[in-house]
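Each lists sequence, tokenised fold; shown next:
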Amino acid sequence: MLKKVVNALDQVSPAQAVEAHCDGPCGIYDPASARIAAEAAVSMTKKIIALEVPDASDSTAMAAYLNTLTRFVAIKEEQAQLAKDELLVLWTDYFKPPHLEKYPNLHTTFWEAAKLCSSVKVEVSLQHAEELMTAIQEIHTIFWATKDRNIDWYTAG
């Protein structure tokens, strides 16, 4: 029944054909969400490295240390995965073939950033966490250039 009504309306007033650049409406994509998640992973990496292991004979201190370490690791891994998810959505949903023509290193840049997210998840490497931030900064620059905008890169730290 509904299909008949829609077809009848389409005969009277046909809908215009439309096209979209992105899979979602423009304006919903922004590399800032990946930056924020990666910053959290950097922060947790620094906190993990700074943790001091207590004397093993102090069971209360050891339990508190292990609890804190476990929470920091969980947050680091969660945020690195979130950064990866945000980057992959940006890569696969926002960027299109014309962008690749203008930025031939686009695929490599995203692939390497996604790999760094994985490294940050499974390691406690400040070097890899900082390399991830650098990769996201490069993606930020490319993204805003595709919109003919110069948006400053900044971090919370």
